[in-house]
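Q: What would this complex look like in 3D?
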Amino acid sequence: MIDLPTFSDVEDAFIRIQPYIHITPVLTNTAINKMTGADIYFKCENFQKVGAFKFRGACNAVFSLSDEEAAKGVATHSSGNHAAALALAAKLKETHAYIVMPKNAPGVKKRAVGSYGGVITFCEPTLKDREETLDKIIGESGAAMIHPYNQKEIIAGQGTCALEFMEQQNDLEAIVAPVGGGGLLSGTAITAKYLNPEIEIIGAEPDGADDAYRSLKNNERMPMTNPNTIADGLLTALGDHTFEAITKNVDAIITTSDESIIKAMRLIWERMKIVVEPSSAVALAIILDNKEAFKGKRVGVILTGGNVDMEKLPF
Amino acid sequence: MIDLPTFSDVEDAFIRIQPYIHITPVLTNTAINKMTGADIYFKCENFQKVGAFKFRGACNAVFSLSDEEAAKGVATHSSGNHAAALALAAKLKETHAYIVMPKNAPGVKKRAVGSYGGVITFCEPTLKDREETLDKIIGESGAAMIHPYNQKEIIAGQGTCALEFMEQQNDLEAIVAPVGGGGLLSGTAITAKYLNPEIEIIGAEPDGADDAYRSLKNNERMPMTNPNTIADGLLTALGDHTFEAITKNVDAIITTSDESIIKAMRLIWERMKIVVEPSSAVALAIILDNKEAFKGKRVGVILTGGNVDMEKLPF
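A: Here is my prediction, written as structure tokens for the whole assembly.
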């Protein structure tokens, strides 16, 4: 059953997670505005705890559990920001986070999860072994599964970013957010369209992992096959929850190339003096690719995270 | 004659430049505080216009000129942030900035000066040719020479950073600022000691360019010979003005290695998600090198700039 959050769920999530999250700043940049012809407002979730918006959803999911449920721990399989986010949320709730990670995950990701006290179980880097390992852990511990995106509480938590953003900048005409599994885009769209039905909500997707674009075009959830993009946070496919939320609330998905993503990422680093990961730069990349569409508009861009391996920069 | 600014000159400078500068944010980071045992407040001049505190001094110097003087233009020799800062200040005053740069200066620096409308004259990369070229330009144009650091208006302008900082965070027990030519450290010390005579002011210097350290130790201005450090904004030696200001007002100069500077720089990028240049990281490097000295204190750190060649990162 598809159970999507309402605006009221997002408001509840915001109250629930407020003691734990950072209210992240909104930045503007004169040079980038000149370059695009738009007024762009950047919501800096790279400054969020654990360095990514993912902490909002994870925190809402963990703190939505009853004390009894939470005492058994939480579990997920992820090698990315969701894993670190869930580990920190569990630590704050004083319970365990069981994280299943492929044994070939980058050292920097393993250390991040470990540093927040997450209990890591390594598995073979196949979806089958991931899922079997996770099922085994959940069977033994009774831990609550927290999905990285296809879950009501996660979507509601990610929606708090748009809630905050539209309070900070109440005259936005459009919001562009990257789409991978679709948790952020779903939460953003549900929240923003409630607050302002006229606002345009646009998903930005790498063309090397464009299942959301194809799914919207075909009005049917399409599989992701061999995703290949530098935006390593956007390799996952939409779930049934996020597909429905996006179909109902998002105006368009626009895709872009890795070349444009790297160019946009470098522009943000050089001009704004902030560190963002490639997935964060996809939204600015589509604006730079399609200047006419955004010209003269007040556009909100969600910079999703700042966790980059400094030894593997694309420039 | 040594003519140092007073606190009142710094206040005047602040009023003069306020329409043009950014009020830069003060950031803190839990992980870095844990690592050092101190409460560190980072004043983010990497977010200043042109990406460095240098814009404060350049702006004050240019807007201190009479309209008649300013009409003839301003001139300097520099291949760094001062050149870009002076070019932008001159543009805002609607006059010319004549910048003498060695012809082997990095392309990124040339483009920065050019993008703010600076008039570049290339010279041989020797001090002699630099000075002769500059003298010739000043002789022909009547432009006002604006020194990168050894000048009253520049020191007063750089002092506005500490003025702002101590308003934003009024309980600092120490401020650490990098020292190259000494303009920022002089302005910081004059301002901070006036506002709170008890505050400790510490200069942070790369041990590969340690003329300030040696000068304070010998109580005599020592020459800089063959400076060699990754902190390319700190290669210059103290002038007579900055030597006097620092001798009178600074409590200590502490030096550090390039290895520590790179480590601190990477820590700032990875943990704080902001882009700072190597010169900016010297202050945090000395705190990490000397944890006992800073433990339990509220320490202000000035992050001086964020202009980095992304293709030549040290990690």
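A: To summarize the key features: The beta strands of chain A are 26-27, 39-44, 74-77, 97-102, 119-123, 144-145, 174-178, 200-206, 252-256, 298-303. The longest strand of chain A covers residues 200-206.
Q: Very helpful, thank you.
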